[in-house]
């Protein structure tokens, strides 16, 4: 149903750009990996918008790594496995918790300035962490500080060429090996970029949902491209909804960091009642899926579209110092974080699944690597532990670069890749309408709570859009919608297949976790039946 390529083309008719390493995406994964690779390789970094526009930029809470004397990789490992609900890869988690501290030191070396207290790195605690191990920058602007520092490095390094406003349409493969990417330039012309290795760092899929903390660019491009290229795609049913996004008329779904709850904020329903103690022993710091579903339950019980986040018992000075970005953003809408209860509700935040990789970031397609949110390394399992995503990108970015050094030279034989479906007609409906309808379908039928009937309805609604793949696509918004449709279908099919509730996946018709049958992953390969693989979480 979904073809290998989005457009008809003849590779021999396209201009060719040669490089060593192609990096697609400019979040922490793309920037850091490009910097590390540039020490020995020529790197082309392609981003569809700009260096500073990515999910990383909006990451507030921080980066998780063991730096305190009373903490240890063993504690960090235990917390990660617990949050992952039986689907983490133990080996992948071991890599993260043991190599994460080195990655943080690399970020500092590259110019990232983390907050310091009394001469030592300032640490905070977030949901499901047993120790204070979250490093942060400028209070609540950690992601922006990291991207700022890494962007400066990228612009200084002569071995890195940056293409802003370029859209990668598809990966070019031949006999199960990736040779590069088909790219559309800002003027609409297309080019084949050929490289020894292609690293997908294109981020997540928050835009599949109507309400998301992600920026407009998070349209699941990398997952869809890799799927069309034949890569294994895993765990797509696990979408993490952040419990506390600002929910206020006229305001975007701005993330209210988990660190606010880490510093003592409580959740109240519209009656003013604190409710988390009746849902979980960890109360406001329970795993995100539990907090998010508790909020939805309270909203339904009280007939409201939001609950309140209350940190008014802390001093105004502390609130303003610790959360300056959140404080200032709320003030733009007449909300004072230090004295007002802030209306919040859940929003799509992070995708645990993605392109399946091994411990060196390699996908099932030769010479195609994946790093960051677009990947499924096995670190996050069914539910990502807060602030593990930034450290995962750094750790696995370094590992990818080491692996690339040992890649054999590609064959110099000419590629004979072409693709023709005879597509002539343009899409029949404006993409903005199609996009909004898809987002509403996903929120309504494949969101925080699912059941067989709603998921079948979602599959039917999405299936009506499949004729798009027979259309002659030419614009960025058309490619993005095709990618969103591809990823949405995978989410729905995975959610239908997993007949249990686990981590971020909750089925009302199968509300219990079922380890005897479902301690395994769901894997998709284009043109093949959905398969299952056992988890190696121990």
Automatic annotation (TrEMBL):
Keywords: FAD, Flavoprotein, Oxidoreductase, Pyridine nucleotide biosynthesis. GO terms for molecular function: L-aspartate oxidase activity; steroid dehydrogenase activity, acting on the CH-CH group of donors. It is found in: Cytoplasm. Residues 435-529 form the Fumarate reductase/succinate dehydrogenase flavoprotein-like C-terminal domain. The active site is at residue 288. GO terms for biological process: 'de novo' NAD+ biosynthetic process from L-aspartate. Its cofactor is FAD. It catalyses: L-aspartate + O2 = iminosuccinate + H2O2. Transmembrane segments: none annotated. It comes from the Bacteria. GO terms for cellular component: cytoplasm. Its EC number is 1.4.3.16. Belongs to the FAD-dependent oxidoreductase 2 family. NadB subfamily. This is L-aspartate oxidase. It comes from Paenibacillus lautus (Bacillus lautus).
